[in-house]
Batch of 3 targets.
Target 1
Amino acid sequence: MATTTFPGRGGDDKEAAAGEGTCGVLGQIDDERLHLMGLFIRAHRRLTDLLGRELEESVGIPLVWFDVLIHIGGAPDGRLTMSRLSTDVALTTGGVTRLVDRMVEAGLVARQNCPSDRRSIHVVLTPEGQAMLHRAVTEHIDGIERHLMAPLSGVNRAALEAVLTKLLDADR
């Protein structure tokens, strides 16, 4: 396990005073846990930024809209309640309401009353939403191939899958 180290304190340690090329206290911490978490976050951010930008340029929708379309399209009946959608896309109920409002205005999704529970509202894909989902999936897969898969060997891909699966299953 990595250790956390801090350079000496006080005026005697000139290297510590110069910061050894680091910025602030966090720059002086040598900890494997922080390093790995930082790599994970930066890789996620880089992939999300690249894939989101490409998706918006190629099909004209932001990544969060794609996330909504793919969750609804993958739902068993092609419909999700607003609360389930909120959980699936990690937004507050208010945030998902505003998001769905914009997607309804764009003609990609519609709200439907639930026949078995008058309190529930389902979100479904419109025909335009289904067509957009198909176009977006094709473009997104191409981006994933370029930015995630191509730089990794088959062994790297298998290792990444094993590690991510292990992390996701760790708290179950």
Note: Strands lie at 79-81, 109-113, 121-125.
Target 2
Amino acid sequence: MNLDQELFYLIHHELANPFLDTVLPHYRDKLTWVPLYLVAAYLLWKQHGANGLRLLLLIALAITVADQLTSSVIKPLVGRARPCYAAIFEGQIRELVGCGGHDSFPSSHAANHFALATLLALTWLQNRRGWIWAFMLWAASISLAQVYVAKHYPLDILAGGVLGALVGVAVVLLAERLGFLERAVFLAK
């Protein structure tokens, strides 16, 4: 816990600068990425037709499962306060975004973005290594931005990222087992 708090302080305070203070609150906001999501959805549909639409349904499922597991199941069970509510950081939090709900562990942002990135890495991007790295770095950077803006501790995002990746893998494997998705379809194009 001490190491987690020290890493949080390092990221939130020691790395603080006006540029990141301006950019990261928007960068980590899900609405910022709506254009990317729409372009990706269009490309999936255009390149793969019905298979692309199936993949979009699986993406929605993976994000919903990751989000509900973190928000409705694990966070209430663990009950760890966000850094912005923690007594140890009272008066030290730079309010860049609203604090939000009380519970912090694990990060829903990290879980959702890693579920998406992992699912895409195992399907649409499976033969595009550069894009896999780009999406994984994107998910990690959004997750780290959550620490910078004082929404989460580093361990929150690590746990959320691992959970999200596992959800992405589970959704793909389940979809294949049920005959809803065939990954080879995405290798052909």
Note: The chain has one domain: 2-12+41-187.
Target 3
Amino acid sequence: MLKLSAIERSALRSEAHALNPIVLIGEAGLSEAVMKEIDLGLNSHGLIKVRVFGDDREARASMYESICTSLNAAPIQHIGKLFVIYRPKSDASTEKVLRKTGGGLREVTIVKPSPSGTKRPTVTKVMLKGNERVTAGGNIKRAKPRQVSAKKSALKNS
């Protein structure tokens, strides 16, 4: 379990005030799938809230302790049925999540040969969004066409 000072916990509590719970624990309790979701939430956010729907105080307290010890996280706050848990984000886990989802911008190098074939090729570095791709000719295209309303397409065709 990660240990934090009282000042650090206080600062994290104030940050967590505006957060909504991202994991809900129902009647099944603390299952393997719930632990995996909490781990993913900690990897991507660092500071999360968890809501428990059970009425047993002792069971909630033991869940809170077991989550923090098994995931090496710091217990920040336990008020009623809400847990606030913190674990510092690691750079490798965020890169892994971004690669998996393909999110964000990525840099691509485009090499175009000269029209005559005797000069040097032009090399450009371009930032692509998640829904863009580079064609064989070196042009940038969206993977899916932009949606157009029925009214605009009717005006365009007439």
Note: Residues 102-145 form one domain.
